[in-house]
């Protein structure tokens, strides 16, 4: 009994961690590379969840609702890039962060007015509602979908950033816009690409969260978003794989704290651990060491 | 004529950067821009490259260049080695060189040229996977020039290339450049040390207070007392 | 005694959370108040005077609630204020009401002891959760034969955590029910999406019943997770559970809660109110098309109705010079034994500022609330007599 | 004569201004703190406990709370020395959330149920503190010591190599910021007469940053404008009802776009100086 | 003549790169000492070791007989060593004038940093005059032309009242005449008792300026002595100067 409950809790934690991972990836695409914290990602995630919900409720199959919601999320993200980031690129890095905060307010207000502030609930049917039982442990099809999509998107993103010209171009723009331009990189386009990718990931996370928990409100973004930022930081913002490592760590830590300690202490433990990790590894678990920041006298 | 500049004018907010610059560069030449601190050499180069908004005309290979289109200008063969080198300090030496060929389609050819660069500049070869930001000043300057040449430019703009280079290295760099010249490279050079640049340049233009105040064959300028006199008069 | 006020305007204020996480409450409240304003004025107003309700949004934020209370009292010169809604806002607003000398009556707040700490101007048209729980739990225990129960509550919500951490454990003990998580209370935080760990833990305790102390919007998350994990234990909670949204969360499960109002209640006054307000609410663009009036709509409707009655009977003059006197009149009227009849029956205010009214123990069944029993929030005999 | 509504807004604005200044002092050394609500919570709870349970008069209670909060500033400032940019911001955010969760679980000050029993403070008292703190910061801004703070922001390494003790500078900034935030918290507690952990969340910390950046992050006077704007705007937008927050967000973005260095910047004063010299 | 600085047996490596191997030299009081060498030879690294920016693997650095190796950079600066940077490092938000005020702050007590001071202002003015930058006093320093920024850096370094001034390629970006002016300025300072250590690739400038010179190659010191001797040293010619110099 104790063991199967424990396994069940670990599975719960992994699911939560997968969600964190996806959103953390969305954050790290703009933060790790461009160095700005796009706070609106939390809200893009929330909008993604609502769009996915609405599509599924109106009878669209899941395999179509997922890309649909991802696309909408990507478009919103690109709009934010053009209006909220581009014109502010020369200001201090806090200014674009605050302009994305402005966008969060708009998106949240929009969602409240469109879908209401009360929880929206979805009833799953057919294969999505299937669960597998292994003794006392149970695992749902949706959970498996969540794991698979998370892993797949992670690998794709990492390949794109590490193995292609796009990744190098992005890093060049992030470091020095003028220099990247004289090397032939188009900063505006690059930034749009980064934001779009980040929107896609956040949108996907939204749909998966909607499917898994089947209740959403316009306010789900804030807390999960903050946790996802913590996951990104713990993993190391500059390394795509960091989120894949840190997501499950934080997810499981959180669930186990709740299970064997108490929910009241949860945030204390999670943020405490984040600070502790930062003290030991200031760039996060997998982030390049400070040596790669390239400063010398 | 590969480049001609007419009535070029750039302001930094309320501060005038350059007032009225006219000059031209012929295919295959080395042209030097010389002048004191703040004369406007760097500003001119940045404007031509497409990093600054400007007034006036810049005609490159028969076409007018619009301001602020550095990416497009590079695609048309116009590369700049900026003042202060413009190394991507967080990337490795190798990645910096790769970025030099960012727009090139012949990636295989690029790889062999990168290897050739390593052979020519052993320092870069030794440090290929090191972070570029940790190179010494002169090493970074070499990297910047090597990187610009990997873009296969038709017109190379060098802003104070000898800055921080040891005498022998300066000679080596200019050897390298003259090799490319044989393959059709044209060079526009900005230098403080007029002696140095006049030695290798075909023609030169003397800048002062944002205007061109003298021009001529480099040899004449080098020998004549024109530079000295003009500078004395203006300081 | 009352003078004729024809040509004058009697103004009341209302503070509702029309934006933020409880936007729906505030927006529905607004519809109910607009309806009331129309009804009163069509019926001849207040001794001939036109009644006007000035409604402000506080976004469920304490600071804004206070600002709005001040604005209503100072700039709009209203005679009394309905609201604010949330306990956090009330905690901050009531002291200001006392300072300014204006009645403030909350339509939602059920955190124990808030009005009692802010006499004489703070009132709540709600019943303290402690009083309700004391009657609901025994009834529930008997109906579902409960020997051992587990409690889960929202630790971040002041009301829910007070009830979940203090009141319910005490009441379970008083009724001889074993509290399975007494040592390591199971809780979560407002806004949590993931309560899988908590529910897994609940499940592992194998209780006969679950006590769920949370606001309905949070409770839904828990119910959904229980459904996902296939947990079929009956649930009992506080008034905070009351909402039509709860009904869809886990229709197969018996959910029991106390309330002073629900839309399907078979009482003439309630029927009239519900029939009148439901189409109006559903016609609002910013509210869902399936919305039903909630407990809070009924409460705020009652509050301002009571203001109107007080103004009428206590004889306000609605003259600017008498503002303070008029406000005192309304307060005194509210504090006294009156014969005000609300939607569910007689309503009066006890010395601690909370309402004394009859309430119903209801159970979610087939997508509706069904009343199982009627009781009175006051232990005194016939305090709630019709 | 001010109505009590206006007076209330002024009080809220003053407290927000103090919060903004607390972020400003820390940010001047290039460190972004997203956890000042945590220091504010310490100030609010400690001063309230001192006045209510220990019977201490308010002013000494505020001074004590500010001092204790400064010690916490030092404790969080030390690890912060190792962190850069948004990593630091996240660590401070984590600290803020930890403080909030701590008070959520700390029964002696009421836990989730909050704490009350404080005496109301008059408006002039709040204004007095605000003016005092603002004056201190603005005077410091004109000294050479402030140049050191700016130097640490501009280029920490170079600052060290030209002889500045950057560690001390950064820690002092953290301590000062923490103390100012604590004053803001104490005033808030004695203005609202009730505090709960939810008052000191992430949104409060971002509000401080917002007020400061909107007003202009290169000088303390900017925060006055930023705080005033943040307090006034929501009130002015009441007519928009349902879309109020969205319009607020849009205006926020618009202001940032139009004045990306903030509404006020050093040049505004530079121009004034220039003008004086020209005449 | 006493030595201001004794730099002994220093090794410095970065991962696999040996930037300095067993380097030793002394800097005499009131002398201009030059360091030359090919790119990447380790010249700037010597500066970084002296100023505490790097911690060498081995060795000793003494200022007026006091060991300074291992001290925090700001302590070394306060002990009387100030420097300029090869990659100019000015404070991006500050005007030239603010640089002059700032650089005098660290060595004074806290209180005097808060109160305005006439002495500080006067010294600031003098520094700007000395390096010829009074005309741009209210400009943001980083928006100035490259060569002028170098002068601001030197003025900032000298304003700290150092015993030893370290200059890393100061005439890069200056023309011949400006370099000549600078040479005279520096020699004037030396005559007043300042010790200067300078790195520069402009040989003509160095020959005229330095009292003594050290030559680096691949992290090792390959020669040291009077400029005229250095110029004739075959090892130096092979490694650095080239045949035609
Ligand atoms: N970013 C800037 N902001 C304001 N003014 C600038 C900026 N960059 C250059 N200037 C001004 O423009 C003028 C020309 O400068 P520029 O850098 O082009 O000169 P230069 O000839 O390259 O000098 P140097 O030889 O020192 O590099 C100078 O007066 C300079 O102060
Ligand atoms: N922090 C560091 N990390 C890695 N390598 C370094 C670091 N600092 C210096 N180096 C290496 O040490 C060697 C010496 O560098 P240094 O900057 O001292 O050269 P230099 O003599 O000043 O050359 P230049 O004339 O080009 O400025 C170089 O190869 C450089 O790449
Ligand atoms: Mg230049
Ligand atoms: Mg060097």
Helix content of chain D: over 70%
* DSSP strand count of chain D: 2
Shape of chain D: globular
Order of helices and strands of chain C: EHEHEHEEHEHEEHEHEHEHHHEEEE
**Rg over CA atoms of chain C:** 21 Å
**Helix percent band of chain C:** 40-55%
Portion of residues in beta strands of chain D equals under 5%
| Main beta-sheet annotation of chain D | 2 strands, antiparallel
Structural class of chain C: alpha/beta
User: Which two protein chains have the largest interface (Cβ within 8 Å of the partner's Cβ), and how many residues from each?
Assistant: A-D, 49 and 45 residues
Residue runs with pLDDT of under 50 for 5 or more positions of chain D: 274-279
List the main descriptive attributes of the protein structure presented here.
heteropentamer, C: alpha/beta, eight-stranded mixed β-sheet, 11 helices, 41% helix, elongated, D: 279 residues, mainly alpha, two-stranded antiparallel ribbon, 12 helices, 2 strands, globular, disordered C terminus, binds adenosine-5'-triphosphate, binds magnesium ion
Textual characterization of the structure:
The complex is a heteropentamer of chains A (297), B (235), C (386), D (279) and E (245). Chain A is mainly alpha-helical. Chain A has helices spanning 2-34, 41-57, 62-85, 94-115, 141-163, 165-175, 177-182, 187-213, 220-235, 240-260, 263-280; strands at 120-121, 131-134, 137-140, 215-216. Chain A is 73% helix and 4% strand. Chain C is built from eleven helices and 15 strands. In chain C, the strands form three sheets. In chain C, strands 6, 7, 8, 9, 10, 11, 14 and 15 form an eight-stranded mixed sheet that branches. In chain C, strand 10, helix 8 (244-249) and strand 11 (255-259) form a beta-alpha-beta unit. A two-stranded antiparallel ribbon of chain D has the order 1-2. In chain D, helix 1 (4-27) runs parallel beside helix 5 (123-141), helix 1 (4-27) packs antiparallel against helix 8 and helix 3 runs antiparallel to helix 8 (166-192). Chain D is globular and about 50 Å long. Chains in contact: A-B, A-C, A-D, A-E, B-E, C-D, D-E. Chains A and D meet through helix 4, helix 9 and helix 11 of A and helix 4, helix 9 and helix 11 of D. Bound molecules: adenosine-5'-triphosphate (ATP) (2 copies) and magnesium ion (2 copies). One adenosine-5'-triphosphate (ATP) sits between chains B (12, 15, 17, 35, 37-43, 83, 192) and E (143-147, 173).
């Amino acid at each position: 009994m104790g063991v199967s409950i424990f396994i069940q809790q670990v599975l719960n934690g992994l699911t939560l961690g997968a969600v964190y991972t996806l959103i953390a990836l969305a954050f790290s695409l703009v933060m790790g590379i461009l160095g700005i914290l796009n706070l609106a990602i939390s809200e893009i995630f929330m909008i993604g969840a609502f769009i996915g919900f609405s599509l599924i409720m109106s009878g669209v199959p899941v395999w179509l609702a997922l890309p649909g919601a991802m696309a909408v999320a990507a478009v919103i993200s690109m709009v934010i890039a053009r209006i909220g980031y581009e014109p502010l690129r020369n200001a201090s890095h806090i200014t674009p962060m605050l302009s994305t905060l402005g966008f969060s307010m708009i998106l949240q207000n929009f969602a409240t007015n469109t879908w209401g502030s009360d929880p929206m609930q979805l009833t799953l049917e057919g294969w999505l509602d299937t669960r597998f039982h292994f003794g006392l442990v149970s695992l749902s099809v949706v959970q498996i979908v969540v794991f698979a999509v998370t892993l797949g998107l992670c690998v794709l993103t990492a390949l794109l950033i590490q193995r292609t010209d796009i990744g190098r171009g992005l890093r060049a723009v992030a470091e020095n816009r003028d220099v990247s331009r004289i090397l032939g990189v188009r900063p505006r386009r690059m930034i749009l690409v980064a934001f779009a990718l980040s929107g896609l990931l956040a949108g996907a996370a939204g749909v998966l969260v909607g499917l898994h928990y089947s209740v959403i409100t316009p306010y789900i973004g804030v807390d999960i978003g903050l946790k996802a930022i913590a996951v990104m930081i713990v993993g190391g913002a500059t390394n795509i794989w960091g989120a894949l490592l840190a997501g499950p760590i934080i997810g499981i830590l959180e669930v186990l704290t709740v299970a064997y300690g108490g929910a009241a202490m949860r945030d204390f433990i999670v943020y405490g651990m984040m600070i502790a990790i930062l003290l030991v590894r200031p760039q996060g678990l997998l982030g390049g060491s400070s040596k790669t920041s390239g400063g010398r006298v | 004529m590969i480049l001609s500049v007419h009535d070029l004018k750039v302001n930094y907010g309320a501060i005038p950067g350059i007032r009225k610059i006219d000059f031209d560069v012929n295919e295959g030449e080395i042209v030097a821009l010389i002048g004191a601190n703040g004369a406007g050499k760097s500003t001119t180069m940045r404007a031509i490259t497409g990093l600054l908004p400007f007034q006036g005309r810049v005609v490159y290979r028969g076409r007018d260049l619009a301001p602020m289109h550095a990416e497009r200008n590079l695609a048309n063969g116009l590369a700049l080695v900026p003042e202060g080198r413009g190394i991507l300090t967080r990337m490795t030496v190798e990645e910096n060189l790769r970025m030099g060929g960012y727009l090139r389609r012949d990636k295989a050819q690029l790889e062999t040229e990168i290897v050739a660069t390593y052979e020519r500049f052993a320092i870069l070869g030794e440090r290929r996977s090191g972070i570029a930001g940790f190179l010494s000043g002169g090493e970074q300057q070499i990297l910047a020039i090597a990187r610009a040449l990997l873009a296969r430019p038709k017109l190379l703009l060098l802003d104070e290339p000898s800055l921080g280079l040891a005498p022998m290295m300066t000679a080596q760099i200019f050897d390298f450049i003259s090799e490319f010249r044989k393959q059709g490279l044209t060079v526009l050079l900005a230098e403080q040390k007029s002696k140095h640049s006049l030695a290798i340049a075909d023609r030169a233009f003397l800048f002062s207070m944002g205007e061109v105040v003298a021009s001529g064959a480099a040899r004449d300028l080098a020998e004549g007392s024109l530079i000295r006199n003009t500078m004395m008069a203006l300081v | 005694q009352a003078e004729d006020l024809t040509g004058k305007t009697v103004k009341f204020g209302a503070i509702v959370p029309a934006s933020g996480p409880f936007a729906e409450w505030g927006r529905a409240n607004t519809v109910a108040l607009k309806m009331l304003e129309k009804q009163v004025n069509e019926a001849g107003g207040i001794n001939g005077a036109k009644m006007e309700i000035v409604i402000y949004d506080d976004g469920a934020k304490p600071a804004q609630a206070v600002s709005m209370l001040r604005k209503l009292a100072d700039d709009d010169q209203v005679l009394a204020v309905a609201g604010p809604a949330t306990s956090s806002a009330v905690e901050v607003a009531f002291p200001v009401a006392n300072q300014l000398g204006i009645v403030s009556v909350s339509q939602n707040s059920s955190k124990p002891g808030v009005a009692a700490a802010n006499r004489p101007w703070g009132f709540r048209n709600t019943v303290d959760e402690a009083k309700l729980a004391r009657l609901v739990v025994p009834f529930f225990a008997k109906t579902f034969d409960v020997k051992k129960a587990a409690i889960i509550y929202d630790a971040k919500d002041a009301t829910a955590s007070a009830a979940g951490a203090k009141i319910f454990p005490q009441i379970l003990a008083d009724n001889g029910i074993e509290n399975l998580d007494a040592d390591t209370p199971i809780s979560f935080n407002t806004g949590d999406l993931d309560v899988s760990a908590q529910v897994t833990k609940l499940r592992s305790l194998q209780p006969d019943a679950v006590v769920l102390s949370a606001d309905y919007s949070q409770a839904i998350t828990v119910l959904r997770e229980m459904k996902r994990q296939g947990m079929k234990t009956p649930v009992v909670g506080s008034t905070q559970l009351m909402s039509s949204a709860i009904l869809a969360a886990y229709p197969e499960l018996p959910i029991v809660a106390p309330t002073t109002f629900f839309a399907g209640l078979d009482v003439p006054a309630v029927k009239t109110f519900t029939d009148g307000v439901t189409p109006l609410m559903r016609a609002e663009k910013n509210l869902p098309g399936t919305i039903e009036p909630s407990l809070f709509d009924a409460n705020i409707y009652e509050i301002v109705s009571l203001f109107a009655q007080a103004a009428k009977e206590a004889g306000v003059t609605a003259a600017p010079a008498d503002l303070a006197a008029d406000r005192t009149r309304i307060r005194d009227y509210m504090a006294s034994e009156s014969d005000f009849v609300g939607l569910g029956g007689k309503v009066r205010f006890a010395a601690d500022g909370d309402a004394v009214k009859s309430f119903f123990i209801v159970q979610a069944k087939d997508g509706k609330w069904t009343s199982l029993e009627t009781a009175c929030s006051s232990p005194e005999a016939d305090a709630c007599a019709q | 004569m001010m109505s009590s509504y206006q007076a209330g807004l002024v009080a809220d604005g003053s407290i927000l201004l103090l919060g903004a200044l607390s972020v400003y002092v820390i940010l001047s050394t290039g460190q972004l703190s997203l956890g000042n609500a945590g220091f504010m919570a310490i100030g609010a709870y400690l001063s309230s406990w001192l006045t209510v349970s220990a019977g201490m008069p308010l002013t000494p209670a505020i001074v004590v709370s500010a001092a204790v909060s400064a010690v916490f500033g030092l404790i969080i400032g030390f690890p912060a020395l190792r962190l850069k940019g948004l990593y630091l911001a996240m660590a401070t955010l984590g600290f803020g959330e930890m403080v909030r969760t701590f008070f959520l679980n700390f029964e002696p000050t009421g836990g989730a149920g909050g704490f009350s029993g404080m005496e109301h403070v008059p408006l002039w008292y709040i204004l007095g503190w605000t003016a005092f703190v603002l004056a201190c910061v603005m005077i410091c801004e004109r000294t050479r010591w402030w140049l050191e703070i700016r130097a640490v922001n501009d280029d920490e390494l170079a600052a060290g190599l030209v002889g500045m003790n950057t560690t001390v500078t950064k820690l002092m900034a953290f301590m000062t910021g923490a103390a100012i935030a604590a004053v803001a918290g104490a005033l808030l507690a004695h203005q609202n007469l009730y505090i709960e952990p939810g008052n000191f969340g992430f949104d409060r910390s971002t509000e401080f940053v917002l007020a400061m950046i909107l007003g202009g992050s290169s000088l303390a006077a900017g925060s006055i404008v930023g705080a005033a704007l943040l307090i006034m705007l929501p009130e002015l937008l009441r007519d928009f009802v349902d879309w109020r927050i969205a319009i607020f967000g849009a205006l926020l973005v618009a202001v940032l776009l139009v004045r990306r260095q903030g509404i006020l910047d050093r040049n505004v004063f530079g121009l004034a100086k220039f003008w004086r010299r020209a005449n | 003549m006493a030595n201001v600085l004794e730099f002994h047996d220093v090794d410095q490596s970065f991962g696999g790169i040996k930037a300095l191997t067993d380097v030793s030299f002394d800097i005499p009081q009131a002398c201009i000492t030059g360091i030359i060498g090919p790119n990447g030879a380790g010249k700037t690294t010597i500066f970084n070791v002296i100023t505490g920016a790097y911690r060498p693997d081995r060795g000793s650095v003494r200022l007026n007989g006091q060991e300074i190796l291992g001290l925090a950079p700001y302590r070394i600066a306060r002990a009387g060593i100030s420097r300029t940077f090869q990659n100019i490092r000015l404070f991006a938000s500050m005007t030239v004038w603010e640089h002059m005020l700032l650089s005098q702050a660290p060595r004074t007590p806290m209180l005097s940093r808060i109160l305005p001071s006439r002495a500080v202002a006067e010294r600031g003015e003098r520094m700007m005059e000395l390096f010829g930058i009074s005309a741009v006093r209210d400009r943001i320093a980083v928006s100035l032309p490259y060569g002028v920024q170098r002068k601001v850096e030197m003025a900032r370094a000298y304003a700290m009242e150092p015993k030893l001034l370290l200059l890393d390629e100061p005439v890069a970006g200056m023309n011949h005449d400006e370099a000549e002016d600078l040479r005279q300025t520096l020699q004037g300072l030396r005559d007043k008792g300042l010790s200067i250590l300078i790195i520069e690739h402009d040989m003509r400038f160095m020959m005229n300026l330095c009292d003594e010179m050290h030559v680096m190659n691949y992290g090792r010191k390959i020669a040291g002595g009077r400029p005229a001797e250095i110029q004739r040293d075959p090892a130096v010619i092979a490694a650095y100067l080239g045949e035609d110099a």
